C-alpha cells in the first residue's frame, strides 16, 4: 500500500525523462551537435536507472514466499539500490573519460543557444525529479511512526523510558540509512507514544505493523539510489547550461570568410575546416594586418573541469549508498545490534546453558533474521525456555528466529561451549565459519586430520537408529559429547 | 573488527602474503599487473604521439583493470575470519564481486553500443594505422589471460592449509566474472582488428560502428548467466542444485516417528557450495527430540546442507 506513491512517482519521472530523451536526440540530429547526443545518452542511462528502481519496487511487493524464493522477493529493493549505485559509479568513470578526451582535444560548442535551451529544459525536469524523490524520503518518516509498534532496535547505551524498547525505531534506522536529520525531531515524541502501546502488541507480533515498517525502510534505499541518479543528471544539466551561456557571451568564434586562427585547437582535430583554411592562408603569405583570434581559450576547458568536479561530488554521495547495500548483501549483522551484548543477555535467561552459532542478518529493511543453537537442560523445560527466548528476540526487534535446541547429556556438563550436532564428514571447507568451535572431523575418505577436542561421535548409535522405527534411546546409551549448537 | 593499529606497510605486506598464498589470487594479481603495465604503456604512447584513439583505448583497459581488482579484493576478503559484525565471515564477497563485475560488463556493453551509434551517425576520420598493432598486442595479452584463468579453476586452496578457508568452489564466481571480462576485451580487440582490415581493404567506413554494436550485444548476452546466478544467490533463493533433493528430504523427515509436520523451510546459498537451512518441526509431545534432531541433521547432510537449524515445537494435546 505504502509503495503506491513510489510507483506513481517513478512512472511519472520515467515518462518525463524518456520524452525528454527523445527530444534531445532529435535536437542533436538537427543541430548535429555531438555533445547533445552524448548528453542524451546520459538521459537514457537515467531512464534505465528509473526502470531498475521500478522493477525492484514491483518485485519487492511480492513479500510472500514462493517455491523457489522462500523469503519472497523483498531483497529486490536492496539489489535495485546496489545496481543503481554501481551504475552511477560506472557512469562517473565514463564522464571522466570524456572529460579527459575533451582536455586533449577541446572543441567549441556549435549553436550554444539551442544547447542552453535544451539544457535548461533538462534541468527543469531533473529539479522536478529531485523534489519528487527528496520529498518522499522525508514523508517516509511520517508514515513509519503512525504504525510503528515494536521497531525496537537495541541501541547501544540509549535507554528510553519504555522498558521494552531501545530508542531504535524504524525511523532511526532510516536515519542511519538516509542520513536525513530533519525528521529526527519527529522521531522522538512519536516513538515514546507508540512505545506504550507496543507492550501489548509485542507478544503477538502484529504483522500488519511490521509490514508497514519494513516496506518503507527498504524502499528508502532504493529511492536514494534514484535520487542520486537524478541529482547527477541535474548537475550535468547545470554544467551544460552554464557552459553554453558562458560560451555565447565570452567566446568569439571564427566566422567563415574572415581569416582568423584558432589557437586553442591542435591540428589533430579533423572537423574544423577553419584551421586548414586559415593555415593555408597564412602559408600563402598575404599578411593581414588585422588577424582575428578565436578566443579566449580557457572557455574550452571549462566544460571538462566542471565535469570532473561533478564526478567528485557524485562519487562522494554515492559511496555511502554503495557501502550500505553491499553490507546488507554480505549478510552483516545490522548496525544497531551488538552481538556481544546480545549473547551475554541471552545467557542470563533462565534455562539457557550455552549459545552457539548465533547468526543475525538483515533480509531487507527492518526484517532481521536470527538463527541460533541454544543448549538447555532437557526437552521438558525446553518449551518454556523457547518462549522466553522468542520474547527476548522480539524485544530486540528480531522476529524471524529459528532456534534449535540442544540438550545436555549427562557427561557433558563441562563442555557447554562445544557444539553437538556438527557434521561428521569433511565439512570444514564447506562450513561458513568454523571460528570458535572446534569440530570433530571424522574425515571420511579425505584423510584430513582436523583440530578438535576429542569428542566421540554419535555415529554408532545413530547408525543403529538409521531405520525409521527406533525406540528412543536412554541417556545412558548416548555417549556422544559433541556439543551441538542448539538453534532455537 | 578492530585490527591492531599496524602501520600501513605491515598491513600491505600481510595482504601481499595472503594474495600469494592462493593460486587463484596469485594469478589474478599477476594478470592485473600485466594489464596495468600494458595500459600505462598504451597511455604514454598515446599521449606522446597525441592519438586520441590510443588514449581512449588505454582508459578502457584501466576500466578492465578495475574488474580484475574487484576480483582480487574479493578473493582476499573472502578469506578473512568471521567476527562480531560479520557472523558468517566475509565469504559472500565473492558473490558480490561476481555480481559487480557482471554489472560493469553490462555497462561497458551499453557504453560501446552508444559509442557505436554515435560513430555510425557521424563517422569521424579515425586514424586506424596506429591502433592496429596496439590492438594486436592487447589481443595477445588477453589470450594469455584466457589461458591462465581457464586452467586456474583447479587451484587446490585447501591442500594443507587451515581448514577454515573456503574450498576451490569459492573462487568460481570470481573467476567467472573475470574470465567474462577478459573475453569481452578480447572480442573488442578482435573487432577493432577486423574493422581496421575492412576499412583498409574495402573502405567500408560503416564497419567500425557495426562491429562495436555486434560486440556489445555479444558481451551483453554472455554476461546473463553470471548475473542470473549471482542475483539468485543474493536474493536468498533456494539453491538450484537442491531443487530436486529438498522435497525428498522433506518427505523423509515427515516420516520420522513423532513428527507431525514440517513448516517454514528456508534454504539459501551463502556462497558457492555452502548451503544454510532453517526449518520448524511440529512434533508430538512424547517424541524423542534428540533423536529427531540428529536424524533430521543426518537427512539434510546427505542432501548437501551442512548448516541446519531445526526448531522443534511440541504440539499441545
Automatic annotation (TrEMBL), chain A:
Transmembrane segments in this chain: where? Answer: 41-60, 81-100, 112-133, 226-251, 298-319
User: What membrane topology does this protein have?
Assistant: Multi-pass membrane protein
Molecular function via GO: calcium channel inhibitor activity; zinc ion transmembrane transporter activity
Q: Where in the cell is it found?
A: Membrane
Q: Name one GO cellular component term.
A: membrane
In this chain, composition skew of type Basic residues spans 142-158
Q: Quote the NCBIfam families the UniProt record gives.
A: CDF
Family annotation (InterPro entries): Cation_efflux (IPR002524), Cation_efflux_CTD (IPR027470), Cation_efflux_TM (IPR058533), Cation_efflux_TMD_sf (IPR027469)
Residues of the Cation efflux protein cytoplasmic domain = 334-404
Region named Disordered: 141-192
Q: Which UniProt keywords apply?
A: Membrane, Transmembrane, Transmembrane helix, Transport, Zinc
Q: Which GO terms describe its biological process?
A: detoxification of zinc ion; intracellular zinc ion homeostasis
Q: Where is the composition biased (Polar residues)?
A: 159-185
Please state every residue range assigned to the domain named Cation efflux protein transmembrane: 12-250
In its UniProt entry, what is this protein called? Answer: Zinc transporter 1
Instruction: Name the family.
Output: Belongs to the cation diffusion facilitator (CDF) transporter (TC 2.A.4) family. SLC30A subfamily.
From TrEMBL, chain B:
What broad class describes the main subcellular location of this protein? Answer: cytoplasm
Instruction: Provide a GO CC annotation, any one.
Output: Golgi apparatus
UniProt keyword Ion transport, yes or no: yes
Reactions accelerated catalytically = Zn(2+)(in) = Zn(2+)(out)
- Domain Cation efflux protein transmembrane per the UniProt entry, residue ranges: 28-235
Give the record's membrane topology.
Multi-pass membrane protein
Task: Name a GO molecular-function annotation.
Answer: zinc ion transmembrane transporter activity
Q: Where in the cell is it found?
A: Cytoplasmic vesicle; Golgi apparatus, trans-Golgi network membrane; Membrane; Sarcoplasmic reticulum
Q: Which InterPro entries does this chain map to?
A: Cation_efflux, Cation_efflux_TM, Cation_efflux_TMD_sf, Msc2-like
Q: Please list the GO biological process terms of this entry.
A: intracellular zinc ion homeostasis; zinc ion import into Golgi lumen
Key words of the record: Cytoplasmic vesicle, Golgi apparatus, Ion transport, Membrane, Sarcoplasmic reticulum, Transmembrane, Transmembrane helix, Transport, Zinc, Zinc transport
Which residue spans traverse the membrane? 27-47, 59-77, 89-111, 131-149, 178-198, 204-227
PANTHER family given in the database record: PTHR45755, ZINC TRANSPORTER 7
Family as reported in the entry's similarity comment: Belongs to the cation diffusion facilitator (CDF) transporter (TC 2.A.4) family. SLC30A subfamily.
Give the record's subunit note: Homooligomer.
What protein is this chain from?
Zinc transporter
Organism of this sequence: Dissostichus eleginoides (Patagonian toothfish)
Amino acid at each position: 500500500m505504502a509503495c503506491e506513491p513510489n510507483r506513481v512517482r517513478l512512472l511519472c519521472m520515467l515518462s518525463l525523462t524518456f520524452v525528454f530523451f527523445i527530444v534531445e536526440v532529435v535536437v542533436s540530429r538537427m543541430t548535429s551537435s555531438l555533445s547533445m547526443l552524448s548528453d542524451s545518452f546520459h538521459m537514457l542511462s537515467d531512464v534505465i536507472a528509473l526502470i531498475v528502481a521500478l522493477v525492484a519496487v514491483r518485485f519487492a511487493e511480492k513479500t510472500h514466499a514462493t517455491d523457489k524464493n522462500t523469503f519472497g522477493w523483498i531483497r529486490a529493493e536492496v539489489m535495485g539500490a546496489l545496481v543503481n549505485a554501481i551504475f552511477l559509479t560506472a557512469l562517473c568513470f565514463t564522464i571522466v573519460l570524456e572529460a579527459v578526451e575533451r582536455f586533449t582535444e577541446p572543441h567549441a560548442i556549435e549553436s550554444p543557444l539551442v544547447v542552453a535551451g535544451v539544457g535548461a529544459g533538462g534541468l527543469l525536469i531533473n529539479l522536478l525529479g529531485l523534489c519528487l524523490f527528496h520529498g518522499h524520503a522525508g514523508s517516509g518518516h511520517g508514515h513509519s511512526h503512525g504504525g510503528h509498534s515494536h521497531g525496537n532496535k537495541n541501541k547501544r547505551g540509549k535507554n528510553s523510558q519504555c522498558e521494552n524498547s531501545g530508542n531504535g525505531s524504524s525511523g532511526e534506522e532510516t536515519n542511519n540509512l538516509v542520513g536525513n536529520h530533519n525528521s529526527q525531531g519527529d522521531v522522538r515524541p512519536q516513538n515514546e507514544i507508540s512505545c506504550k502501546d507496543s507492550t501489548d502488541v509485542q507478544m503477538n507480533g502484529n504483522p500488519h505493523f511490521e509490514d508497514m515498517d519494513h516496506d518503507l525502510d527498504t524502499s528508502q534505499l532504493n529511492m536514494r539510489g534514484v535520487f542520486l541518479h537524478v541529482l547527477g543528471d541535474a548537475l550535468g544539466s547545470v554544467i551544460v547550461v552554464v557552459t553554453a551561456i558562458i560560451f555565447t557571451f565570452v567566446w568569439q568564434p571564427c566566422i567563415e570568410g574572415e581569416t582568423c586562427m584558432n589557437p586553442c585547437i591542435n591540428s589533430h582535430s579533423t572537423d574544423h575546416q577553419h584551421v586548414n583554411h586559415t593555415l593555408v592562408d597564412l602559408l600563402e603569405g598575404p599578411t593581414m594586418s588585422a588577424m582575428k583570434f578565436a578566443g579566449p581559450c580557457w572557455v574550452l576547458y571549462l566544460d571538462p573541469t566542471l565535469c570532473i568536479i561533478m564526478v567528485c561530488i557524485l562519487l562522494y554521495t554515492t559511496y555511502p549508498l554503495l557501502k550500505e547495500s553491499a553490507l546488507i548483501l554480505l549478510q552483516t549483522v545490522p548496525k544497531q545490534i551488538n552481538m556481544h551484548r546480545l549473547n551475554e543477555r541471552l545467557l542470563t535467561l533462565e534455562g539457557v546453558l550455552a549459545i552457539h552459532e548465533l547468526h543475525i542478518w538483515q533480509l531487507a529493511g527492518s526484517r532481521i533474521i536470527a538463527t541460533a543453537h541454544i543448549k538447555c537442560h532437557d526437552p521438558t523445560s525446553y518449551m518454556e525456555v523457547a518462549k522466553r527466548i522468542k520474547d527476548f528476540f522480539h524485544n530486540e526487534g528480531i522476529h524471524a528466529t529459528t532456534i534449535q535446541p540442544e540438550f545436555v547429556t549427562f557427561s557433558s556438563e563441562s563442555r557447554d561451549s562445544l557444539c553437538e550436532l556438527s557434521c561428521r564428514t569433511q565439512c570444514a571447507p564447506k562450513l561458513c565459519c568454523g571460528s570458535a568451535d572446534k569440530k570433530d572431523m571424522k574425515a571420511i575418505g579425505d584423510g584430513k586430520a582436523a583440530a578438535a577436542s576429542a569428542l566421540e561421535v554419535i555415529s554408532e548409535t545413530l547408525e543403529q537408529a538409521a531405520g525409521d522405527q527406533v525406540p528412543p534411546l536412554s541417556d545412558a546409551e548416548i555417549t556422544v559429547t559433541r556439543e551441538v549448537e542448539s538453534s532455537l | 573488527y578492530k585490527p591492531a593499529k599496524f602501520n600501513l606497510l605491515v598491513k600491505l605486506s600481510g595482504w601481499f602474503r595472503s594474495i600469494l598464498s592462493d593460486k587463484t589470487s596469485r594469478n589474478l594479481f599477476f594478470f592485473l599487473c600485466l594489464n596495468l603495465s600494458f595500459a600505462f604503456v598504451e597511455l604514454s604512447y598515446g599521449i606522446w604521439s597525441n592519438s586520441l584513439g590510443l588514449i581512449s583505448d588505454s582508459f578502457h583497459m584501466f576500466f578492465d583493470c578495475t574488474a580484475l581488482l574487484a576480483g582480487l579484493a574479493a578473493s582476499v576478503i573472502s578469506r578473512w575470519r568471521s567476527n562480531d559484525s560479520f557472523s558468517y565471515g566475509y565469504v559472500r564477497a565473492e558473490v558480490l564481486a561476481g555480481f559487480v563485475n557482471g554489472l560493469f560488463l553490462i555497462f561497458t556493453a551499453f557504453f560501446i553500443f552508444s559509442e557505436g551509434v554515435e560513430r555510425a551517425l557521424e563517422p569521424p576520420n579515425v586514424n586506424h594505422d596506429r591502433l592496429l598493432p596496439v590492438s594486436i598486442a592487447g589481443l595477445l595479452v588477453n589470450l594469455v589471460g584466457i589461458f591462465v584463468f581457464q586452467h586456474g579453476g583447479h587451484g587446490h586452496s585447501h591442500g594443507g592449509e587451515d581448514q577454515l578457508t573456503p574450498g576451490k568452489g569459492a573462487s568460481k564466481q570470481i573467476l567467472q566474472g573475470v574470465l567474462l571480462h577478459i573475453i569481452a576485451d578480447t572480442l573488442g580487440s578482435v573487432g577493432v582488428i577486423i574493422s581496421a582490415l575492412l576499412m583498409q581493404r574495402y573502405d567500408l567506413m560503416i564497419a567500425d560502428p557495426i562491429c562495436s554494436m555486434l560486440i556489445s550485444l555479444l558481451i551483453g548476452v554472455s554476461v546473463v548467466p553470471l548475473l542470473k546466478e549471482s542475483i539468485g544467490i543474493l536474493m536468498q533463493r533456494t539453491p538450484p542444485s537442491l531443487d530436486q533433493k529438498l522435497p525428498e528430504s522433506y518427505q523423509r523427515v515427515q516420516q520420522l516417528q513423532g513428527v507431525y509436520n514440517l513448516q517454514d523451510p528456508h534454504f539459501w546459498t551463502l556462497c558457492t557450495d555452502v548451503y544454510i537451512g532453517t526449518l520448524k518441526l511440529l512434533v508430538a509431545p512424547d517424541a524423542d527430540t534428540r533423536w529427531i534432531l540428529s536424524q533430521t541433521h543426518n537427512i539434510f547432510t546427505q542432501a548437501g546442507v551442512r548448516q541446519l537449524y531445526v526448531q522443534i515445537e511440541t504440539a499441545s494435546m
